[in-house]
């Protein structure tokens, strides 16, 4: 496989060259449409590792506390360029690296199966995300309290440059910082490359993209679960699905991750956390300005736009969900239509996804107060999915897969490509009938 390695032109503080350690037993899942997009004939072609395979280093504020990190169980095989678009092809669960600390470099098969389903569903409901090319089952088992099967996900992303990558660069010094930010601009925002105010415009673009990303999450009831700065890509794509879940009963204070003991990353706190993470990004960019005072003034002004970017995009999306074509997302009365409807859903303790789909199908016994608006039901059907991956359906499919039966996993794989089609099995629409917690799957 002819990969490119532009990331390796950066200082080696950002990576460590090393080889994956894989004994592949079989390919459990293969994303044929993504294979075609990447112009790949067979997955084995990308599993011939050369001397340039590498792992990345970065920092992260994990639950608010700074830590030096890195890819402890991941390797980037290289960059694939298709029709002018550059993608990282990476492995997760592929063995120890320089950054593994005390870990074994492996991932439970169940964790990578979950990421495959959730990431591909997000892609198919038009939310920016990393994607899943394949799941490989390995020959060796791993110890996680009990003996478990191990697996590898082949992940595809526009890059793996994280907020934490920029944080690490700022810690190393201005030269390293300038090189990684210039690289990020050239890779993701090339139209800024020669702009005299490129660093402040870069920050503004990232703030806008992350605000719009979290607005999209909120509109579909997605709870990421572990919004540390090392899990936020400067491309504005979703990544790292460990403890994620979708809201079922609409409760804005809900969270599911068992490691999030205080609910830091609960559903209604996600916009605030993204704003906080972007504040850390802004702090990391200060060295790129002539004076600290100038930097703080400029960067804070940009960061303060987050709320407007977020609310405007979220209300626009919610206006579409209730079927108003010419919804004025800046108008308080129009915003009130959305907020009042959400309050009814919360008070009635209804399922978030099913309620909006039933509204689209004219099967709900109450509606938003449309006033003079005429609802567009075709618009509603195009933006409100008929189902989401739920804890019970995903878990049941994974449990069968661990026993060697992939029938339910293949069924899920089929229907996540058609999230707005009502001809899906009824069990995919049914809420989980008990409380549950999610794990990060390490």
UniProtKB/TrEMBL annotation:
This is Protein nucleotidyltransferase YdiU. Mg(2+) binds at residues 231, 240. It catalyses: L-seryl-[protein] + ATP = 3-O-(5'-adenylyl)-L-seryl-[protein] + diphosphate; L-seryl-[protein] + UTP = O-(5'-uridylyl)-L-seryl-[protein] + diphosphate; L-tyrosyl-[protein] + UTP = O-(5'-uridylyl)-L-tyrosyl-[protein] + diphosphate; L-tyrosyl-[protein] + ATP = O-(5'-adenylyl)-L-tyrosyl-[protein] + diphosphate. The keyword Nucleotidyltransferase applies. InterPro entries: SelO (IPR003846). Its EC number is 2.7.7.-, 2.7.7.108. The keyword DNA repair does not apply. It is an enzyme of class 2 (transferase). It comes from the Bacteria. Its cofactor is Mg(2+); Mn(2+). Keywords: ATP-binding, Magnesium, Manganese, Metal-binding, Nucleotide-binding, Nucleotidyltransferase, Transferase. GO terms for molecular function: AMPylase activity; ATP binding; magnesium ion binding; manganese ion binding.
